[in-house]
């Protein structure tokens, strides 16, 4: 098991560096986030011991369990799954960034809770760039409006955008999703809103990270290519409540 994780991490890091080279980007501009849904704490600990320091969880129950188990390594933890507002309080115990803010009501509840706890947090706005029914995220045409509204909450710092690209064997269709996210970043940045500093583009996963890096990704989220296939289908994580 450990040998596989070491080899897989090496492969991912060389894929990242090749993609950076191809697109004339510095390797320090792209961070690897370990997407750890369904992965046991001991495997996550092992990956952290290899020098990784950023993980993302999709479900609150797994987040709580695993963060307790891996606390000794003190990784940076982001939330990347669909978030229900009644779970905000628990999520805030563990994460420094929520990458999946996709609706105003959720941001408003987050604002209230942060105010109560006298805390602040970084968030990314999740955009459904593939327009697939099965995926969460604000529709691209509504993204600017959501960013404007959320920017009024002074304890929420909007630091980036997140998307899941289209699952397709046609690279140009996947690329279109990433280009769309980049264009929303540029439009939103031009508005010069308070609390908005959209440096991060979280896009690209096991199958499409090269395309994402070419299109400007600053964080890629990789699960399968490091930890192997998951037993649950992704729909279990992505279609909740739909
Ligand atoms: C599972 C997941 C990933 C990682 O996907 P892989 O194809 O396993 O690399 C990335 N982002 C999100 C939001 C996920 O849920």
From TrEMBL:
Keyword annotations of the record: Pyridoxal phosphate
Keyword Chloroplast: no
Matches recorded under InterPro entries: Ala_racemase_N, PLP-binding_barrel, PyrdxlP_homeostasis
GO molecular function annotations of the record: pyridoxal phosphate binding
Residues annotated with N6-(pyridoxal phosphate)lysine modification: 37
RNA-binding keyword on record: no
Cofactor: pyridoxal 5'-phosphate
CDD domains associated with the record: PLPDE_III_YBL036c_like
Alanine racemase N-terminal domain: residues covered: 40-229
Record NCBIfam families: YggS family pyridoxal phosphate-dependent enzyme
Family under the similarity heading: Belongs to the pyridoxal phosphate-binding protein YggS/PROSC family.
Role summary: Pyridoxal 5'-phosphate (PLP)-binding protein, which is involved in PLP homeostasis.
Protein name listed in UniProt: Pyridoxal phosphate homeostasis protein
